[in-house]
Amino acid sequence: MNAIGRTEGFKRRVEKADTKGQSTIELLSLSLTRESA
Questions:
Q1: Confidence of residue 3 (pLDDT cuts 50, 70, 90)
Q2: What is the reported pTM?
């Protein structure tokens, strides 16, 4: 899977999770941690 496709998929997941508010931030933090690891 290429980086662009992964980023688009991640954005869609964040948009879906956005109704939960705080969990979106947690999801984003987890993803960023995983990316930099």
A1: confident
A2: 0.33
